[in-house]
Amino acid sequence: MFESAEIGHMVDKKTWRKQVPDLRVALLDAQFELKETAKIPVVILISGQDFAGKGETINILYEWMDPHFLTTLAFAEPTDEERDRPAMWRYWRALPPKGRTGIFAGSWYSDPIRQRLKGTLALTDLDARIDQINRFEAMLVNEGALVLKFWFHLSKAAQKKRLKALEKDPHTAWRVTPGSGPRLKNYDQLQEVAGHMLRMTNTAWAPWIIVEGADDCYRSLTVGQVLLNSLRQRLATGDNQDTPVAPQMRPSVDGRNLLSELNLKKKLNDKAYADQLAHWQGRLAELSRDPRFAQRSLICAFEGVDAAGKGGAIRRIAGALDARKYQIIPVTAPTEEERAQPYLWRFWRHVPRCGRITLFDRSWYGRVLVERIEGFCSERDWLRAYSEINDFEHELSAAGAIVIKFWLQISQAEQLKRFKAREETPFKRFKITDDDWRNREKWPQYQQAACDMVDRTSTGAAPWTLVESNDKNYARVKILQTVCERLETELKEKVVGEWMTREFPRRDNRRDNNKSAKISPRKKGKTKT
Amino acid sequence: MFESAEIGHMVDKKTWRKQVPDLRVALLDAQFELKETAKIPVVILISGQDFAGKGETINILYEWMDPHFLTTLAFAEPTDEERDRPAMWRYWRALPPKGRTGIFAGSWYSDPIRQRLKGTLALTDLDARIDQINRFEAMLVNEGALVLKFWFHLSKAAQKKRLKALEKDPHTAWRVTPGSGPRLKNYDQLQEVAGHMLRMTNTAWAPWIIVEGADDCYRSLTVGQVLLNSLRQRLATGDNQDTPVAPQMRPSVDGRNLLSELNLKKKLNDKAYADQLAHWQGRLAELSRDPRFAQRSLICAFEGVDAAGKGGAIRRIAGALDARKYQIIPVTAPTEEERAQPYLWRFWRHVPRCGRITLFDRSWYGRVLVERIEGFCSERDWLRAYSEINDFEHELSAAGAIVIKFWLQISQAEQLKRFKAREETPFKRFKITDDDWRNREKWPQYQQAACDMVDRTSTGAAPWTLVESNDKNYARVKILQTVCERLETELKEKVVGEWMTREFPRRDNRRDNNKSAKISPRKKGKTKT
């Protein structure tokens, strides 16, 4: 893999002086088109051996391109806000928006490599990480990003030579720090780990570009040319990526489906409701204060037919919780900053920390519901959303989040009754719009989309709960009870995907409830299904 | 202050049932106008005694208003990302954007009150915090926000009674936690501290609304009415606040000013430049690795005449730094999310953590330079910006940030030369636009604005450095040297505004460079001027 990057590539000063001006003009033109017309986000990973020119490359990119549209992203020790969330959260929040270029000095590769070198990551766990990285990068590319992964390589001899040359020149001697020497001793080990990583992540959609780092002119010109060619190619092809074949969704041969089979007659009288509500709210309040919950987080997503009672159910949950512990996120139209990012970005930004709760009033499932039906995104986009959503929820639960998803179902007759009541009650009128009436006409399509959604995204770690909601009392209690029972089970015997939580181990002293009893460590064992 | 809230206010169920529907309709109408037309951000503070109905009020607001435009903000123990920045950073990042309502369950008042109760905040320090809060709220109001501060009060007897009633009813008993009893013992102390705080922050622009919390119907109706009336009043008056009188800026009687007095002939030959550059870059690299810097942060703002060489100077600083330590923030047009916030919000979001560096290519001074000259904001806005900027920089430096500001000055002749060179060099062409030529015609106005800016914002903690930049060599070295010398002084003898840093003391174990030598504590002593 590294052979071509050890043959002693060099570019002389004359060639350099001749080529650079044209390259710069071309790069600036491409960058301009990128931000003005194509609005593509560019992700550039700068990685490789020590002293192979990573920092110099970042500087030259700032010199050659318009720095107003560049951002450098770098990652040191994770902060506690990062430790308290899935490992990929810190990278999601650093992604460049459309039209901008993000230069990653360090990336999602750095931690696995570091941990593998330290010996704290088993090979099988490393491979799980690699799989996750490949899926993440595929998502980026599918979302329209250009992903360029540079690895700067030096042979062992070339690395030593470069270090000596830097030390000798008084203008560069300061670049060599006391830690430089010892770090080089890891050369062989790093080559082995990186070799494995690079091979396994050398995908068609985001291949590695290995560049010999010994000669400044060669390295910089190579990076510039690769960047220019990739930008041009991407600008020329536009968004015309191969559309995956749409698999056949489940056809409704006998007219029966998950939702039509629900018994919507289930009821609870007001007396029983008051008692049950108090019971489960009290239980939820207790569970949210359980010291074991400080190690976990809770994410509830509410979807359902219009007027099925999502808001009321959410308020019954919130009513049992300390305001400092939860956030209600109503999912409305995305903001400009959100539209400039991959679809899931706006949900990632609301992922709760350990010990916290986020209640989503509508959710990331909008893509396979309203966006699918109304044609707000392409077929290709919503088809790939199922697996991206599964990946997302997998990352959440592997990091200790408890993901609970509710579909609230009412009958068409009940919906009509509620729509009319909304129109007739002045303070409910804001809840009913023309859109609601239009959606109602597409009832069968929405029901079909909901069934497809449940079929494809109800997973062991993040199952759907279908809620018979013609009776609000019954629905609210069922939801509260489901949340409580799931929390009880999870806090009792939850097994956590070890590789992910081990990446950024949490620190004991950064818990909020530092007066609470001792926290029992997460148990190991078999995965709950 | 609390007398009116101890007389046993009550509203009977009948009145409640009669008034609530109309109130809800009116609130929804006002909220709709708020978000569709007026685009005002509403900041609601919910605070007061335990069991005075804070949580219940939040719930009722969610029931009465359209929850899609409400956000609840709550603050527990600060995270390390928050500890590493000025105390107000966590509140800045929580502010609701225009058209939305942020309900603060806990706020900038919570920490000072808690610390005062614990006895860790001296009265004089408390008063400094109060002054800061008043200035912050004035800024919010000036930026167009409606700020409503509710304090729910209970007499000691009423509080006890309410606790007992909650315990007795099986439907509410779970609301009483083991910690409830002991907390009530602080009643008198809390009343004293809160009384002082409330009195001192009872400003004309953001007065306190003290509400008796004993009776649910009374409390909720009161909050609803106050909210409705305030919204209506605000919607009716629009943005017509009193314009402050514009003070006379320094007139140029003799044609001389700070910038005209600079000696732009200062030079450095290429040989000396190479040596000096290496010297100061080396020094800067060392200083950035100094263990004492892990307790501080560095913020450099670059302003100057067009084509004065900001970008080149910034790259010379960046070239000396580890990519993980710094961020270059080019200040371009604000995004939609940024436009929906107070002016300084988009700079607050880039405030670096301890141990980190942010280089701003143009800065928050845009408001008193280009926005003033081009009329992008009202006179009232840029006039108040001077003191808001001073407050901002004061908060930064009080929290340990080192703030360095550069104005790069070139002559008109030199600018013309550089403009022409940019037009003639293909890869520099992107740097010159029609705007630049237009700005050049307003040379005297821009120079005047720059002088006013330096006069009004060059403070002891954050002084301006004027850089003679006709010669790029000289300018770059002067800038590097200034940064290094300032860092040296600050790391040696910096005194930190104690009250601010004490608020969220940093934890030793959360430093990046946890292998570095022992960190010496910040020295106490007299303020450096």
Number of helices of chain A: 21
Which strands sit side by side, in order, in the main sheet of chain A?
Answer: 2-3-1-4-5
Strand content of chain A: 5-15%
The span between the termini of chain A is 41 Å
Largest sheet of chain A: 5 strands, parallel
**What is the global morphology of chain A?**
elongated
Segments of chain A where pLDDT lies below 50 for 5+ residues? 495-503, 505-529
**Residues in helix, % of chain A:** 40-55%
Using the CA coordinates, give the radius of gyration of chain A.
27 Å
Number of strands of chain A: 10
Give the overall average pLDDT of chain A.
86
> What multimeric state do the chains show?
homodimer
Largest interchain contact: A-B, 74 and 75 residues
Structural class of chain A: alpha/beta
Write the layout of secondary structure elements.
2 copies of one chain form a homodimer.
Chain A: H1 13-38, E1 42-48, H2 54-64, E2 70-74, H3 80-83, H4 89-92, E3 101-105, H5 110-118, H6 123-142, E4 146-153, H7 156-168, H8 180-184, H9 187-200, E5 208-212, H10 216-237, H11 270-289, E6 297-304, H12 310-318, E7 326-330, H13 336-339, H14 345-348, E8 357-361, H15 370-374, H16 379-398, E9 401-409, H17 412-424, H18 434-441, H19 443-457, E10 464-468, H20 472-493, H21 498-503
Parallel strand pairs in A: 1-3, 1-4, 2-3, 4-5, 6-8, 6-9, 7-8, 9-10
Helix pairs in contact in A: 1-10, 2-10, 11-20, 12-20
